[in-house]
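Many introductory courses stop at the sequence. We go one step further.
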Amino acid sequence: MSMASIRNTVRDSIDRLGDAARVAAPPLLRIALAVPFFRSGLTKWDGLSLSPAAVFLFEEEFKLHVFGQVYDIPIPALVAALDAVAEIALPVLLVIGLATRLSALGLLVMTAVIQLVVPEGWANFHLPWAALAVAIIALGPGTLSLDDLLRCAQHSRTGQGGA
């Protein structure tokens, strides 16, 4: 086998690997961001009801750290309920790839708020979560998503083709 042939084989293999990564990356990013939020969301529910512990956290434990001051969470029961719903709904939407960019944006906003509540978590948790959310917003849902399936269906209905 000649050097040119080996070079072409290696180049083709790398290209195939890149193609596979382009397909696999978006769902992997979506899952990586969804898991910690979903797991946190599960702890905030007691069956179909909001857990009393979740409300307690927002009333007594969680505080906003802003400009060197510490503030109570406003309307803690409502914020706890909204958080509990978002931590279940947004990760589910991310994993199935439906309203993907909007779901990632929602989790990015949640990450920013969490940063205000737990400022020491930025390097180990908040920065990677923010990076994942920004990557998902930038790259989109990918081909293995309901968003893409719906887009293809819409294009075929309007006669614009599927890709």
